[in-house]
Write a structure and sequence with these properties.
Elements lengths: L13 H7 L23 E4 L2 E4 L11 E2 L3 H15 L10 H8 L15 E3 L2 E3 L9 H9 L6 E3 L6 E3 L16 H5 L5 E3 L4 H8 L9 E6 L20 H11 L3 E4 H22 L5 E2 L4 H10 L13 H17 L6 E7 L3 H6 L14 E4 H10 L21 H4 L6 H15 L17 E8 L2 E9 L1 H10 L7 E5 L17 H17 L9 H11 L5 H7 L12
Parallel strand pairs: 9-10, 9-12, 11-16, 12-13, 15-16
Antiparallel strand pairs: 1-2, 1-3, 4-5, 5-8, 6-7, 14-15
Helix pairs in contact: 8-10, 8-14
Length: 561
């Protein structure tokens, strides 16, 4: 390679070898989580006089490889110009423009052809920006197993779209957003339901009206938002995040972890009830709206098994528009509830007609991690220089159990901390249930609690959920955690790019660090949770709790049939 002999392992690609030896080969369509397909042809190298793509060409004995010849550089530039000829707009901080500068491209010789943008539902495909790298198609088909998008047409008319070109909101899409997460150019992206509300949030500090605005932040955000401002993955930015949101102008900054603690309380008691009655087991978790849409359309026979608990986002919204609004003397319609979520499907969830507890939407607007990061940038807030702020009370008080909700296995562990004390009637001494932690797509364990053996399974990634259900193995468990995104919410479709398995693991480690530092680690020990049940809700699964914190599911006939 470049005149030096290198040792290689069987099965390695030229790109693998180059990386290991510190040789830079530019890539665009390549992603470490996906099978390399060599679509963009930016990673070309010269092998024994021929140009080949390095990402998917395996090394062989007697190969003579050059990575930086004049012929290689000219071919890379030509391919980049052809890609750019299909793009009408690209942000300077995305991969394409950075790479074009690296290749020394200042001018494009080819005419632009594409004019086929599609904006539909919580996710939109903008073919003005699409470089046809195929990452979105791969993740939808090979990892999530939904097969909702693919390439159509040929030549310069090639584009990515849904089956029969139907609107995304009417397609088999679950809005998991993994296509958007893997897209290098923001061609597949989240879409705001209300531009008016977005403008309201952007100008919240200068708008003078009767509205009272609050914001809630999901557990996963504190472990990922810093990446948008140069922080290393695994950096917890909880305090800086709170301070930045207060600077934007929200009246109160609260924590979705409070909603997660409520979810734990309701779900734990629901599980105990089902165990006692030996009815509708296993209990399947319900806090992932992408999984819920998948179940309602694809596996309606499972609906009786799914927990009736709303997600933490929606529980928080319901409590904010009722309990909190009354406490501060504001009408529910005048209380603007904004959610910062790692998830695009949360936008869809907030708009569902059943998510109204006080005659209006419980959550008014959902912004992804990427969206709030860009908003902070636009407002020229120096995120890295901020000191630490504190969440407001009472909806900002939470437990470590709420904090780990963002990691695969976190919901299960949080629930186990509460049901252990219910089943054994003893105070929990060791709060960690490490048996449920891990990264395998489907994993299981059995935990003894008093005189009961609880069989548990965890599945993350829709492809793995499909495997578990269609194998029939799901029937042998008592409790199953279902998360649509690989790694759980820390790998959600609205998280910063890039997101790889290495980055997911670091974010998960950060959430467990947060949990470890918390004074309260079990949801049932949270004084704010105890108080809200005493003052307002009564008890878990009580009449008021059922009305505000639980929901129903129904078989939904897809519009595309």
């Amino acid at each position: 390679m470049n005149g030096k002999r290198v040792k290689v392992k069987k099965g390695e690609t030229i790109l693998d070898i180059a990386k290991r030896n510190g040789i830079n080969i530019p890539t665009l369509c390549y992603h470490p989580d996906l099978k390399p397909e060599g679509k963009c042809r930016i990673c070309l190298v010269e092998v024994n006089g021929k140009l080949v793509t390095s990402c998917n060409t395996k090394v062989e004995e007697k190969m003579e490889i050059f990575t930086n010849t004049k012929r290689v550089l000219e071919a890379r530039r030509l391919n980049m110009e052809l890609i750019l000829s299909n793009i009408t707009y690209a942000r300077k901080d995305f991969e394409l423009i950075k790479l074009a500068k690296e290749l020394g491209i200042r001018k494009i010789r080819f005419k632009k052809h594409v004019d086929n943008s599609k904006g539909r539902g919580p996710i939109e495909i903008d073919n003005h920006r699409c470089i046809l790298c195929g990452r979105c198609v791969q993740v939808c088909q090979n990892i999530q197993g939904i097969n909702n998008i693919d390439f159509v047409n040929r030549g310069i008319f090639t584009e990515v779209t849904t089956p029969f070109n139907i609107p995304i909101k009417d397609s088999p899409c679950t809005f998991c957003g993994q296509c958007a997460l893997y897209c290098p150019e923001n061609a597949v992206r989240e879409r705001a339901f209300s531009e008016k509300l977005i403008k309201y949030v952007e100008n919240i500090s200068i708008v003078k009206d009767s509205k009272f605005s609050i914001v809630q932040t999901a557990p996963a955000i504190r472990a990922s938002l810093g990446e948008m401002f140069g922080a290393e993955p695994r950096t917890l930015v909880t305090g800086k995040m709170v301070a930045a949101l207060r600077k934007i102008g929200f009246d109160k900054v609260f924590d979705t972890d409070f909603g997660a603690d409520l979810t734990i309380m309701e779900e734990a008691n629901e599980f105990v009830e089902r165990i006692k009655k030996n009815k509708n087991l296993p209990l399947l978790t319900s806090c992932c709206p992408s999984w819920i849409r998948f179940a309602e359309e694809t596996y309606p026979f499972l609906l009786k098994n799914i927990s009736t608990c709303k997600s933490p986002q929606q529980m928080f919204g319901a409590i904010a528009k009722t309990y909190y609004a009354k406490k501060i003397g504001v009408k529910p319609k005048d209380l603007i509830v904004v959610s910062i979520m790692p998830c695009i499907a949360k936008k869809f969830e907030a708009e569902k007609p059943e998510m109204e507890s006080a005659g209006c939407n419980d959550v008014d607007i959902v912004l992804t991690t990427r969206e709030i990061g860009r908003m902070i940038e636009r407002k020229k807030i120096n995120f890295s220089k901020f000191g630490d702020g504190e969440f407001d009370e009472p909806l900002g008080i939470s437990s470590g159990g709420g904090a780990i909700f963002g990691a695969t296995g976190g919901v299960t562990e949080s629930v186990l901390r509460v049901i252990y004390e219910i089943f054994t009637d003893k105070k929990l001494k060791k709060v960690n249930f490490k048996q449920v932690r891990g990264f395998e797509g489907i994993r299981d364990t059995e935990i003894e609690m008093g005189n009961k053996n609880i069989k548990i399974a965890i599945a993350h990634g829709l492809g793995n959920i499909r495997k578990l259900i269609e194998s029939g193995e799901w029937k042998k468990y008592h409790f199953i955690e279902m998360m649509a995104c690989p790694g759980g919410c820390i790998g959600g479709g609205g998280q910063p790019r890039p997101t790889t398995w290495e980055i997911r693991k670091k974010r998960i480690a950060a959430l467990y660090e947060q949990d470890k530092k918390m004074k309260i680690r079990v949801a049932s020990h949270n004084p704010a949770i105890k108080k809200i049940y005493k003052e307002f809700l009564g008890k878990p699964l009580g009449k008021k709790s059922e009305k505000l914190l639980h929901t129903k599911y129904k078989k939904r006939k897809p519009k595309y049939f």
